[in-house]
Structure formats: C-alpha cells, structure tokens
Amino acid sequence: MNKKLILISFAxxxxxxxxxxxxxxxxxxxxxxxxxxxxxxxxxPEVMGNKGDKCSKCGMELSVLVDMNATTTQATEETKATIxxxxxxxxxxxxxxxxxxxxxxxxxxxxxxxEAAFKSFDKTAxxxxxxxxxxxxxxxxxxxxxxxGANAGKIAHQREHFDLLSKDMYDLVKALGAGQILYKxxxxxxxxxxxxIWLSETKEIKNPYFGKSMQTCGSVKEELK
Amino acid sequence: xxxxxxILLVLLIIVVGIQFIRPVRNESEQVLxxxxxxxxxxxxxxxxxxxxxxxxxxxxxxxxxxxxNFQPVAWMLNNHVKxxxxxxxxxxxxxxxxxxxxxxxxxxxxxxxxxxxxxxxxTLFHKxxxxxxxxxxxxxxxANKTTDSLSSNQ
Lengths: 225, 154
Prior knowledge:
The structure holds two protein chains of two kinds. Chain A is mostly helical.
C-alpha cells in the first residue's frame, strides 16, 4: 500500500516537472522569435507585428524589419544612474537657455525645478563610490539651484551661482554620464577675465554669462559623451 | 470707555504672556573642531572682523543685545540667526565638503564686494558691525588666497 502511494506521487511529480519544462521552453522560444524578427509599418514605426500583417492605423503591410535585439541592448546599456541624471541635466539646460536669453524669471523657474530634481534623485542605482561623489556634488549644487530659484530679477546674482553650479554639473556628468552628448564650453571673459565654463547640448556657442549682449563669446573645450 | 479698557487689558495680558515663550538661545562658548579657525589659518585682523561683523548670525555663538530679552524681538532674532546659519555657519565650516567651502568663500567675497553683507538693516543697529574698507580688503584677500590654496590641493 505504502509503496504504491510513493510510486504514484513520484509519477505525478515527474509529470508536473515535465509540463513545467515544456511551458517555459515554449515561452522562451516565442519571446526569442518575437524579439528578433519584427516588422513595422513604413508610415507608423510604432505599429509592429509579424511579416505580412496590416498596420492598424493605415492598413499598409508591415514591411520594415525592426532589429529588436539592437534596441533592447541599447536600453540596458543605459544604466539606471544615467536615467536619474537626465532629469537634473534637462533642468540645468533649461536654466542655461533661460540665461542665454537674459530671462531671469525662466531661470528662476528652472532653478527651482533643478533643486527639486536634486532632491528627488534616486541614489539607489549608484555604486558606493558614485554615491559619495554625488552627495559631495549635491551638497553644493542644490544650494546654487535654490539661490537661482529665489533670485528672480537679479540675473547677475543668478549668473554668479550658475558659474559654480556649472562646475558641479561638469563633475557630475563626468562621474555619472548624462545620457546625451554635451559640450563643455568656456567663456574667457566672465569673472573679471578669469573665465567660466558651462555645459551645452549644442555645438554652437550661446553664452549664458553675457546673454544677448555677447552671445557668441566662448569656445567648445570638450565633448562629453 | 469700558470696551477700550477691556481691549487694553487683553493686550497687556498678551504682551506679558508672550514674554514667557522664549526661544532657545544660540549660545555656545565651546569652539568645535569644525570651526573655521581650526581648519584654516587666518590673520587676526580677519578673525576679528569676522567675529564682530559675521559671527552673530553665522556661528553657534550669538552675542545678544539687552533687548533680546523681550518678545517678540527675540523671536525675530532667532529666525534671522537660524536663516543665517543655514546659509553659512563658521562653527561648522570645517565639516563642509571641499566643494561647498570653495563656493562659500566665493560667495563671501562677492557679498562683501557688493555690500550685501553684513545686512544694511543689521549695521543700522550695530554700527560696529559695519566693515571698513580695510576690513573688507583683508577678508577678501584672505578668502581669495584660501580659495587658491584649496583649489590647487585638489
């Protein structure tokens, strides 16, 4: 009696594990197929399906081969840390652009947003060393962002803080990456001809320290990738 | 007439009442290891100027005037000191990151150059806190020198 019971339970166990294996294999095969060969509509690249399917938006045949592997590896290469930095970088660039346009109110708004971005920055994705670097930079940079936010109407004061903030931002991007190409620009005249740097998303020089009065003063010193 | 008397009486009670609500004073004779004097060398002329003109709001030891015994004056002073220490605290300067120290030194120079600090509203009541041109120059020179040595050490 006991022997029979054990035998039956063994049989059931084997049956189940076999089933499990099968299903996992199947799903793995499916996803591999899906991810490596997909076709997109020539007019609506977001619509994807198998070859020969029709686009749900315009009815055209899905004929553009999409290399799913390429896009997925790219996404994983972009580390979590970089994604978190993006928010900070984008607000910094907004601030920079407001200053190039001599717009003190927009600069203040961007300063506040930048301060908030520093506050809500997700440090969990950083390595211990990166975390230390970040905290060191943040202790200083956040204060500059706060000052810029609180000093709408005093653009000269905002620019003083922007100078120090830009140095912090340069170090931050060097340490954690920016998720986009940035240029380190240098204006030789600011600070009584001691000079000051800033980061820009474009190769073209637009000076945030002098704004419209001397828009093209400066040069690209480094390309940050 | 009786109403006026009542109002005056209530006011008196409030004024007397608030005298008992006293904020904790920002006083500490102890010089911390993080004090700026422990981390940086500075000539006596600079230290004296900082102590007289800045330390009341930017350190852990405020020297209070006699009217700080009355409310709501003490509350206002307390807010000022808290705000000032938030921005810059010489008693804690050594604990700042190198980066923040450099920023603060630069801000000190520009604030003094632009006559924004010490606050004009402060020097109005504390004539001795106003910096003379000589004081300003010695602080600025010291700050610039310290900045240079800090940045070259990095």
